[in-house]
Amino acid sequence: MSLHLEIVTPEHRAFSGAVSNVLLPGADGELGILEGHAALVTALQPGELRYEAGGKIVTMAVGSGFAEVTQQRINVLTDMALGEDQIDEAKAEAAMKRAEEQLAAMSHNDDAEEVAHLQGIIAKSLAQLNLKRRAR
Length: 136
Hints:
By secondary structure, the chain is an alpha+beta fold. The protein is 29% helix and 43% strand. The chain has helices spanning 89-105, 112-134; strands at 3-8, 13-19, 21-26, 29-34, 40-44, 47-53, 56-62, 65-69, 73-78, 81-83. The termini are far apart.
């Protein structure tokens, strides 16, 4: 028996299928999941999600979100899930540069929500760039 992994974004289902293991970018660090894992719900931070399916390891850049784990199933709800071939390096670099410039121009009294939004853009852009550059 194996695990069933679902990766869902607001726009589409990025993956649905049987896997033998999953590595998640948890809020407190990387989290490895095998069949029979204790049930849990955890926050995800932008980073790399890896899973093994059919003897092949697949890596995706994911954004923030949540993962629900049961003994036979993992449901990942995230705001971004991209494979290496879906990442446009130039666009990711440009988005990160714009967010860094906007963040640098903000004063200490500016909206904390806007700061968090810009930091999220930077983190998601970094996740994409790290995956794309490692694949070269």
